[in-house]
Design goal:
There is one protein chain. This protein is of the alpha+beta class and 343 residues long. It has 9 helices and 10 strands. The strands form 3 sheets. Strands 4, 5, 6, 7, 8 and 9 form a 6-stranded antiparallel beta sheet that branches. Strands 1-2 form a two-stranded antiparallel ribbon. The longest helix has 31 residues. The radius of gyration is 24 Å and the shape is elongated.
Length: 343
C-alpha cells in the first residue's frame, strides 16, 4: 500500500508540475486559459475559478491538462495569435518545469545526505539485481558489505573472491545500513544471468551518507541533473544507432521501481522522482506529434517558411494521429511490463 501511495503521489506531482509550467507561461503571456485540470475527464470536482480559469479535479489521476485555444488565430486571447517565441515558450515551459523540479529534488538529496564514496574496508553496494540472492536477502543499494562467511571484507576484489569461494553453498553475509548491522544466509549462484554475478550485486568503494550545506548542495544537484541528461541522450543515441537496445517502461514498470525505492528510504525515493522528472523533460521534447516537441517543430516550420503557418486543421490532425499512436504504444509497453512482472 505504501508503494502504491508513493507511486500515485510521484506520478501526480510530475504531471502537475509539467502542466503548471504551461499554465503559468500562458498566463504571463496573456493567453486565455479556459481550464486547468488535474487528472483526465470525466470531471470529478470543480474547485472554482482563478483569474478566469476553471480549476478542476478529474477522475483519472494519471495526467492533467491546460485547455486553451491553440489552433484559431482569430480567437481573442488564443495562443495561436501570439508571436512564435511566445508559443515556443508556452509549449516548452512544461518540460522546463520538470527540469527545474529535478534540480530541486537532487539538491534536496544532497542536503539530506547522499551516499558518497569513501576509502576504507568493506565494499559498497551500488546495484542489486531483481530476484537475485542479494535481493532475496534484503540487501539494498547504498548498503556496505562488511563480512562474508565470517571473514571481514578488505575491498571489492576480496569480496568477489569470497563470493566465488562459496558458489552453490550457503554462506552468511553481513552488511551495514547506516548504523545498523544486518546479516542473512545466501547461496551464490553457479550460473547467474549475464552481467549479474553470483550474488547479483554491483560493488564499488564503501559508501557513507554525507550531507552538504545549501550552497554546495544546489551546484551538486545541477551537475547531477545535467550529467543524467547527457547519459540519457547518449543512451537514446546508441539505441537509434543500433548499439544498444531500447528500454522503455510504462506505469507498471515505474510502479515497480517506486516499490523498490520505498524500501531503500526517503532519499532514494526523492532521487527516483528526480530521475522520472528528467525522463519526462526529455520525452516531451521529442519531435513527435502530440508532444510538446512536436508542437515546437510546427513553430520552427513556420519560421523556416517565412511566417507562413501550416493550416491549423492539418496541424491538429497530425497531433490527433500522434496521440492515437502514443496511446497504442502505451498499451503495448504496459502489456510488456505486465508480462515481465508475471515472469
Amino acid at each position: 500500500m505504501t508503494g502504491l501511495l508513493s507511486f500515485l503521489i510521484i506520478f501526480s506531482l510530475l504531471i502537475f508540475i509539467h502542466e503548471l509550467g504551461h499554465f503559468v507561461a500562458a498566463k504571463l503571456a496573456g493567453v486565455t486559459v479556459e481550464e486547468f485540470g488535474f487528472g483526465y475527464p470525466p470531471r470529478l470536482l470543480t474547485l472554482g475559478r482563478w483569474r478566469g480559469t476553471l480549476l478542476t479535479i478529474n477522475v483519472l489521476p494519471f495526467g492533467g491538462f491546460v485547455r486553451m485555444n491553440e489552433d484559431n488565430p482569430s480567437a481573442p486571447g488564443s495562443l495561436a495569435n501570439k508571436p512564435r517565441w511566445v508559443r515556443a515558450l508556452v509549449f516548452g515551459a512544461g518540460s522546463l518545469m520538470n527540469l527545474l523540479l529535478a534540480i530541486v529534488l537532487f539538491s534536496a538529496t544532497f542536503l539530506l545526505g547522499a551516499p558518497t564514496q569513501v576509502e576504507g574496508p568493506g565494499t559498497g553496494v551500488y546495484v542489486v539485481a531483481p530476484n537475485s540472492p542479494a535481493y532475496e536477502a534484503g540487501i539494498l543499494p547504498g548498503d556496505n558489505l562488511v563480512a562474508i562467511g565470517g571473514v571481514e571484507i578488505r575491498d571489492v576484489d576480496h569480496a568477489i573472491g569470497l563470493i566465488q569461494a562459496h558458489v552453490g553453498a550457503p554462506v552468511e553475509i553481513q552488511w551495514r545500513r547506516d548504523a545498523l548491522l544486518m546479516a542473512a544466509t545466501v547461496v551464490p549462484r553457479a550460473d547467474p544471468p549475464p552481467e549479474e554475478g553470483s550474488l547479483g550485486v554491483g560493488l564499488g568503494l564503501p559508501l557513507e551518507r554525507q550531507s552538504y550545506p545549501l550552497h554546495e548542495a544546489v551546484p551538486l544537484g545541477v551537475r547531477t541533473v545535467f550529467g543524467v541528461v547527457a547519459s540519457m541522450y547518449e543512451a537514446v543515441r546508441d539505441a537509434v544507432a543500433g548499439k544498444a537496445a531500447f528500454e522503455v517502461s510504462g506505469p507498471v514498470g515505474i510502479y515497480q521501481y517506486t516499490v523498490e525505492a520505498v524500501k531503500t528510504g526517503f532519499s532514494r525515493l526523492i532521487e527516483l522522482t528526480g530521475l522520472l522528472s528528467i525522463n519526462l523533460f526529455l520525452l516531451n521534447l521529442l519531435p513527435l506529434p502530440a508532444l510538446d516537441g512536436g508542437r515546437l517543430v510546427f513553430v520552427l516550420l513556420e519560421w523556416v517558411r517565412g511566417g507562413r503557418r501550416i493550416p491549423p486543421e492539418r496541424e491538429g490532425m497530425v497531433h490527433f494521429v500522434g496521440l492515437v499512436v502514443m496511446v497504442m504504444v502505451m498499451f503495448l509497453v504496459t502489456y510488456v511490463d505486465v508480462r515481465r512482472l508475471i515472469n
